[in-house]
TrEMBL record, chain B:
Any one GO MF annotation of this record: arginine-tRNA ligase activity
GO CC field: cytosol
InterPro entries: DALR_anticod-bd, Gly-tRNA-synth_bsu, Gly-tRNA-synth_heterodimer
Residue spans crossing the bilayer: none
Residue ranges annotated for the DALR anticodon binding domain, each copy included: 711-785
Keywords attached to this entry: Aminoacyl-tRNA synthetase, ATP-binding, Cytoplasm, Ligase, Nucleotide-binding, Protein biosynthesis
Enzyme nomenclature, EC number: 6.1.1.14
Name recorded for this polypeptide: Glycine--tRNA ligase beta subunit
Length: 288, 797
């Protein structure tokens, strides 16, 4: 399925990238999405990104909720006029039969408070299940997207469940030799849910958060936005872990989100500052 | 006469925005036509997920010629005025006409072809369209000035009669072509005009009329349930939403595992509705059935088997998640959950939700012990209040906030709380709106009242009152809720008394926290020794902030203490009571009660028992709508006008009564139940009794007016009025005392004939100053007598 998607989007002008080697809550955090959504340069990319969402852990008990799973991410900037048709074409390519399955575009405005980003779009439903997040980015890091990028985020496990017609993610065939998704990941879900919710040392997590914040600021001072952005990703993941541990009160939650957002915005700002001369030269009609 | 068709096709428009979009499109087109002088005829509007369309029937081919005159300055006006006018109109002096010494700019506009008007109107409408949220897209979005639409705009069909209305918006040119259903007929189709639009689309699997799609969903979903021997639980909101998500709606019935029926029915219904937009069904016995109806957008080749299977799978996962929350929550007793409320801030100045719960618990118990809410066990009221908010920290309410209260009720029941208690936990948020069910179970009433009164008193205390359209803490709803609860159980209760109590609990509980600081404790002890009054000590805390040693972090708390105290000292509570009066007027308007009559009774002051007050208003309304009442009102107004004209002033203005807050302000703050001091209660009653009856007797010169000795001789009509007043006054007073307001009105009614006769036969403005004075005094007496029942000056008409 991943190979089919790679072929499909590669044929349509996307560069095929590898996953980013850091823990993140969504493919949107990949610098190839976030930082590349800034500025006027066209950018078309597709990649798989493993995602970690500690609070979504269910100890392997829920048939389609996981604390670790895979997204397939496509970003097309500027958004092409036939993006919906391109997307539906990709579904057909991986074997979704639209004469027997009900595909719907249901309003879902995307917002990432930790990235200072928002966009309008839909969650795409296949027979009532959300299989893709479809977003036209309007802002990233607090800056208007000029031009707007279209982002497609496929839930790979969910799509696979459709195509293989299984009821539980753990029953998915991982290969043709009888290895299932459960064989590969079930124990991981149980252990990591336990660690996320019950075991992770919160003192060292708080400490890690502070250190990532400091390192982000350090990188910003050195005018290294990509390095700073990496620290923002790390801080964001630590914050997610702290939330799963239930040690962040409602009042504090907003303050933490605000701090991560400031880091991400700072990185975006620095990236813009760094790139502006090049962007101005190549795209005279562009302005911030 | 010609029909006009407009279709604005885009990527999927959110369902919830479609109704308003139709109304806005019609409004904007009508406005654009009106600007050109064209009256719009019949207009119909349509939405599907992918199109916003309009048909305007019977438009003229062209507009009429318009002659426009703009009035300018006088010809004698200074030169600058004329220059200014020329600038404004863009004309030269020669183009102006002089009409009777005034310059006029006259412009003749020839008629325009309607098609031309429309061609200009469409881009204007598209650019001005007020979507609640809109976006930029594509290449053009390199500029932030690019066109905004709800989702990318794909095409425009604009046909006037059979002709294209040629226009262009942001590179999209109008044409005859649109597309059919995304999957059934994705090819382009050509529209001939308004006449064949709906039918051409129908052939392409698009039902453009949302009402028709709604009917299909409603009927077919109901029929599917019936075929399965079940009853669909109707939900018009869901019908509209599904119609907004489909161009070719196909309802399908699916099932879920019966095992999930252990999860509360409301949870199943909510997750099906909110997350999946499914209808649910009832069994013949009224219990929830393990069936749902989803609405697909295609006529599937396999009859929908795969779609049903897929949706079943999704719902099973959702329900499995709900069951996970439910079972996890059940393992933790509510009192344990309630401890977590200490971490949730209710409002930065009002402490945590746990603080609020503490205030609620005290107040709920007090309401029962005072006998304001009868028939409840005070321990139940307190217990229910302490558990009421615990479900806010449960997993289920975290997932579905709208289940607050309901889940608490389930969990309280499951841990064996008495029925009164778990019902109160479940229902204490009610009523949440005008149509909502109003609880009458006594424990529930006590907890619900305590919750709302605390909210009202607390937010007024910190000066977060609702203003205009802003009401972020839903104070209006809380006040409406209190009013509904009072009427629902016919509670005998003084609004200011219960708010006074709510403020006192806010004061006391915060004071308790404040004196955990040694600084304040010491101050408190020292000043108590001097003043022998516990809580007066802190009245001027703010002034003493300068005292060395006050810990900085305690100052906000000291502020809160003072804020609550201000509520029951001084006039703050009257403002809240006035606010109640306003809400009462709004609330009673629907019941046909006249707001001016509510004003007339409220204006007397002192009465804030809403049940009694409304009884008086009802009697008054019945009275003033009779001929007698109307005449008496007319007589009253005439008398009042004369008195006003003559500058008559009652001998003594009503003395401001010492408020009960001032008189009852000395309860001990630290006792467990300090509010129940018998003195305080007595003071309140006395005070209220004083307040009920306007002080008319002593300040009225009626003694003079009716004094026999040395008074000028009365004319017969004058004497008759005096006699009538002598009789009516004590009758009215007694009736009011007995809360027999009809009786009081009847007593007043006897004044009508004597007053009419008086005005007919007696000249008030007699040459003899003594007579004149006596007659004015008599009118004043009459006015005062009427005011015993209501302030008639507030009555309209």
């Amino acid at each position: 399925m991943i190979l089919t998607l790679h072929d499909y989007w590669s044929e349509r002008g996307c560069v095929i990238l590898q996953p980013y080697d850091m823990e993140m809550g969504a493919g949107t955090f990949h610098p190839a999405t976030t930082l590349r959504a800034l500025g006027p340069e066209p950018w078309n990319a597709a990649f798989v990104q493993p995602c970690r969402r500690p609070t979504d852990g269910r100890y392997g008990e829920n048939p389609n909720r996981l604390q670790h799973y895979y997204q397939y991410q496509v970003i097309l900037k500027p958004s092409p006029p036939d993006l919906q048709e391109l997307y539906l074409g990709s579904l057909a390519a991986i074997g979704v039969d639209m004469a027997t399955h009900d595909i719907r575009f249901v309003e879902d405005d995307w917002e990432s408070p930790t990235l200072g980003a928002w966009g309008l779009g839909w969650e795409v439903w296949c027979d009532g299940m959300e299989v893709t997040q479809f977003t036209y980015f309007q802002q990233m890091g607090g800056f208007d997207c000029k031009p707007v990028a279209g982002e497609l985020t496929y839930g790979l496990e969910r799509l696979a469940m459709y195509i293989q017609n299984v009821d539980s993610v753990y029953d998915l065939a991982f290969n043709d030799a009888g290895v299932t998704y459960g064989d590969v990941y079930h124990e991981n879900e149980v252990q990591m849910s336990t660690w996320n919710f019950e075991v992770a040392n919160t003192d060292s997590l708080f400490d890690a958060f502070r250190k990532h914040v400091a390192e982000c600021e350090n990188s910003l001072n050195a005018a290294l936005p990509i390095a700073a952005y990496e620290q923002a990703i790390k801080a964001s993941h630590v914050f997610n872990l702290l939330q799963a541990r239930g040690v962040i009160s409602v009042a504090e939650r907003q303050a933490y989100i605000g701090r991560v957002r400031d880091l991400a915005k700072g990185a975006c700002r620095a990236q813009i500052d760094k790139m502006t001369p090049q962007w101005r030269a190549n795209f005279p009609e562009w302005s911030l | 006469m010609t029909d006009f068709l407009l279709e604005l096709r885009s990527e999927e428009i959110p369902a919830r925005m479609q109704d308003r979009a139709r109304a806005d499109l019609e409004k904007l087109l009508v406005a654009e036509l009106a600007k050109a002088g064209i009256a719009a005829g019949e207009i119909v509007t349509y939405t599907t997920p992918r199109r916003l369309a309009l048909i305007a029937r019977g438009l003229p081919e062209a507009t009429e010629a318009v002659r426009e005159e703009v009035k300018g300055p006088r010809t004698s006006a200074p030169e600058q005025a004329l220059e200014g006018f020329l600038r404004k109109t863009g004309l030269t002096r020669e183009q102006l006409t002089d009409q009777n010494g005034v310059w006029f700019a006259v412009t003749e506009k020839p008629g325009r072809a309607t098609a031309e008007v429309l061609a200009a109107a469409i881009p204007a409408i598209v650019r001005a369209f007020p979507w609640p949220k809109s976006m930029r897209w594509g290449d053009a979005s390199l500029s932030s000035e690019s066109l905004r639409w709800v989702r990318p705009l794909q095409g425009i069909v604009a046909i006037f009669g059979q002709d294209l209305v040629s226009c262009e918006v942001a590179g999209i040119e109008s044409g005859f072509a649109t597309v059919g259903h995304r999957f059934h007929s994705p090819h382009a189709i050509t529209i001939g005009g308004a006449h064949d639009y709906a039918e051409k689309l129908r052939l392409a699997h698009v039902i453009v009329d949302q009402d028709e799609r709604r009917a299909i969903i409603r009927d077919r979903a109901g029929a599917l349930a019936a075929e399965a021997g079940l009853t669909l639980i109707e939900d018009e909101g869901l019908v509209a939403e599904n119609a907004g998500l489909t161009e070719w709606p196909v309802p399908l019935l699916g099932r879920f595992d019966e095992g999930f029926l252990d999860v509360p029915a409301e949870v199943i219904q909510l997750t099906a509705r909110v997350n999946q937009k499914y209808f649910v069904c009832e069994q013949p016995d009224g219990g929830l059935a393990n069936a749902f109806v989803c609405v697909a957008n295609i006529e599937a080749k396999d009859g929908g088997a795969k779609i049903i299977a897929g949706n079943q799978k999704v719902l099973a996962a959702r329900l499995s998640d709900a069951r996970f929350f439910y079972e996890t929550d059940l393992k933790v007793p509510l009192e344990e959950q309630a401890k977590k409320l200490e971490k949730i801030v209710f409002h930065e100045k009002l402490g945590t939700v746990a603080d609020k719960v503490e205030r609620m618990a005290k107040l709920a118990r007090w309401l029962v012990e005072e006998g304001i809410v009868k028939g409840a066990d005070p321990a139940h009221a307190e217990r229910a209040a302490r558990l009421a908010k615990a479900d806010l920290v449960t997993g289920m309410v975290g997932e579905f906030p709208e289940l607050q209260g309901l889940m608490g009720g389930y969990y309280a029941k499951a841990q064996g709380e008495p029925t009164e208690v778990w019902e109160a936990v479940r229902d204490h948020y009610k009523p949440v709106g005008q149509g909502d069910e109003v609880p009458t179970a006594p424990v529930t009433v006590a907890v619900s009242l305590a919750d709302k009164l605390d909210t009202i008193a607390s937010f007024f205390a910190i000066d977060e009152k609702p203003t205009g359209s802003k009401d972020p803490f839903a104070i209006r709803r809380a006040v409406n809720g209190v009013i509904q609860l009072i009427f629902g159980s016919s509670l005998t209760v003084s609004i200011s008394q219960v708010l006074d109590q709510a403020s006192r609990w806010g004061y006391r509980l915060n004071l308790l926290k404040l004196i955990e600081y040694p600084f304040w404790l010491e101050l408190h002890v020292r000043s108590s020794a001097q003043a022998k009054q516990d809580d007066t000590v802190f009245r001027d805390l703010k002034a003493r902030y300068g005292v060395d040693g006050a810990p900085v972090d305690s100052l906000p708390l000291a502020d809160t203490v003072l804020s609550y105290q201000r509520m029951y000292i001084g006039d703050e509570l009257t403002k809240v009571v006035d606010f109640f009066a306003d809400r009462l007027k709004v609330q009673q308007r629907e019941a046909g009660v006249r707001h001016d009559l509510i004003d007339a009774v409220f204006a007397l002051g002192g009465e804030d028992d809403l049940v009694r007050l409304l009884a008086r208003v009802h009697a008054l309304q019945a009275f003033v709508t009779t001929g007698e009442g109307a005449n008496l009102l007319a007589g009253y107004k005439r008398a009042a006008n004369i008195l006003k004209k003559e500058g008559w002033r009652d001998a003594a203005a009503p003395a401001p009564t010492p408020t009960m807050r001032e008189m009852a302000d000395h309860s001990a703050p630290f006792g467990e139940e300090p509010s129940r001091l018998p003195e305080e209660r007595r003071v309140i009653e006395v005070d209220l009794a004083n307040g009920h009856i306007p002080q008319t007797g002593e300040e009225d010169p009626l003694a003079e007016a009716s004094a026999p000795a040395g008074a000028p001789a009365h004319e017969p009509a004058e004497a008759a009025l005096i006699a009538a007043l002598d009789e009516a006054e004590p009758r009215a007073a007694a009736a009011i005392e007995a809360e027999d307001f009809e009786g009081a009105m009847a007593a007043l009614a006897t004044l009508r004939a004597p007053i009419d006769a008086f005005f007919e036969q007696v000249t008030v403005n007699d040459a003899d100053p003594a007579k004149r004075q006596a007659r004015l005094a008599l009118l004043a007496r009459m006015r005062a007598a009427v005011h015993r029942v209501a302030d008639f000056s507030k009555i309209e008409g």
